């Protein structure tokens, strides 16, 4: 196995030497244009290297393609090598690299995808609240959107200089980005301290003439267009990540754009809770008593019939199975819950009153009917009251007769 691994590495090394001598078009190999930003080049390399890495792709041509991709990225990701390649081509780059050892494409791959060397810093994540219709979440859709962000200047490729010739090695630190400062600790004793170069800000290079397009800022404002694939049944607040599409900078890798997807407030009367849908249907008194058949338009445009025979109580909830939201990344649907709201008429005509009275066996305008117990109690009270009135009247007559007898005496 060890001999096989050594043979594979030796074959890749030989192929790499052949690629260097051939003068390949590195931009074409990575599938980018000559003005591509560092972030674009890195993204292209990541995609191509995964595709052709011999550990994943065992086809005979994959090994050679992987070497080509690694060499292209090794050159185009280095601003100095890229500038030489753009000016003098592969031959000029070969002269520049004379005396150096050829790079190991597997080491480069390891460094890029999490090797032991220091990884490049990633920029901040851009979180955006994004609203789609509930109908889109029900049926699925492709929804376009725009995001304002900063990208590397196409003119200077993020250097901030008008041209490559305007970038010079800092004379204050000789390109190191730091200076050694001697400080006296005690009389006759000094210590050297390393500090960031104040002339170049630690970059090791200074710009004599700034880029006229970005004015030395290295980045420009840009409005990017994307498409969101809304999956049927997508949950409220679901986050979709667009990797490496946030603000670009020459100092770090672009962060991610994260869309937090929610449905709009107006959803045609439908309300959602997870996989369930809720709907309120209004019916009249006659429909509540006699039954009804109503049609509603579902989120996907289908006509759904709500039918009920007999009486329907106000607030009654009908469950329509399988007419809720699709199960996200699954099969089937949730249920639809229909709540019925019964509306009473504000006024009743005389004819309608008579019909209702006949239907319920009551006199129009009469108060509520009493049951037998209430009737007997009321009759008893009337009889008792009548007896009290009669007794009172008899007492008054006796008192009057007694008074007349006294007057005669």
TrEMBL record:
Residues 140-223 form the CR-type domain. A zinc finger (CR-type) spans 140-223. Residues 1-22 form the signal peptide. InterPro entries: DnaJ, DnaJ_C, DnaJ_domain, DnaJ_domain_CS, DNJA1/2-like, HSP40/DnaJ_pept-bd, HSP_DnaJ_Cys-rich_dom, HSP_DnaJ_Cys-rich_dom_sf. Residues 378-395 have a biased composition (Basic and acidic residues). Residues 25-89 form the J domain. Keywords: Chaperone, Metal-binding, Repeat, Signal, Zinc, Zinc-finger. One of its GO terms (molecular function) is Hsp70 protein binding. Residues 359-409 are annotated as: Disordered. GO terms for biological process: protein folding; response to heat. PANTHER family: DNAJ-LIKE-2, ISOFORM A-RELATED. This is Uncharacterized protein. It comes from Rhizoctonia solani.
